[in-house]
């Protein structure tokens, strides 16, 4: 199997005023040459901070990203932001299909796929999120749910260079609860198989991130699980020390 360079991506959600830009400088200070060689880092601040964050990250190797985008490149969609606008503001990636978007804004797999296609069209790396609810896990349908989400949310043109999958069990997000490493291994193994079936060799090297209550204290064990190629981090990405502590979990 080919070596896959891990990605640790931070999702600030609806947190961060201009003063939070200092955290990007602090992450940059801890992201030295050796580390850059071993791991990719991304930070997705709220849309209001994408432009200044990208400026703050210049030369650091840290990719700045959006947390959502519209499927269209422009038009009458008040309040929405196009992937092209994120790219223009200096973003290199965008999260699509986060469970909070799926739940709060009723985003279906089809909508998520259209957003992921928009990201690829604009030249952004798409971080496509999937994951089951607690009720679905308890019913034993986790793999069915994740399989359906993957089938419906990923563009046919997905490649390892343009798409990253984030497996985020909804019940593990912001709760301090995480699945066992065995459970993570089972789902990530299933995602890898699914990607290989659909995308062949590209599917074998697409990055699959784990997300849900990743912290410095549990990062090492989660990042060591087979087919876990990095993490999508919410709460613990807000402070540079925590975020770098998670990166250190790669060993
Ligand atoms: C997320 O929102 O993508 C996430 C994983 O959040 P947290 O790390 O806070 O659980």
Automatic annotation (TrEMBL):
Active-site residue numbers: 98, 168
Pfam families, per database record: TIM
Gene3D superfamilies found in the cross-reference section: Aldolase class I
UniProt cross-references to CDD domains, sorted A to Z: TIM (cd00311)
Enzyme Commission number(s) from the entry: 5.3.1.1
Localization of this protein: Cytoplasm
InterPro entries, alphabetized: Aldolase_TIM, TIM_sf, TrioseP_Isoase_bac/euk, Triosephosphate_isomerase, Triosephosphate_isomerase_AS
Record pathway: Carbohydrate degradation; glycolysis; D-glyceraldehyde 3-phosphate from glycerone phosphate: step 1/1; Carbohydrate metabolism; erythritol degradation; Carbohydrate biosynthesis; gluconeogenesis
Molecular function (Gene Ontology), one example: triose-phosphate isomerase activity
Top EC class for this record: isomerase
Reactions mediated catalytically: L-erythrulose 1-phosphate = D-erythrulose 4-phosphate; D-glyceraldehyde 3-phosphate = dihydroxyacetone phosphate
Keyword Cytoplasm: yes
One GO process term, biological-process aspect: gluconeogenesis
Residues given in the record as substrate binding sites: 11-13, 174, 213, 234-235
Keywords: Cytoplasm, Gluconeogenesis, Glycolysis, Isomerase
GO cellular component: cytosol
Similarity annotation: Belongs to the triosephosphate isomerase family.
Subunit structure: Homodimer.
Known function: Involved in the gluconeogenesis. Catalyzes stereospecifically the conversion of dihydroxyacetone phosphate (DHAP) to D-glyceraldehyde-3-phosphate (G3P).
NCBIfam families: tim
Name by which UniProt lists this protein: Triosephosphate isomerase
Organism: Hartmannibacter diazotrophicus
Gene field: tpiA
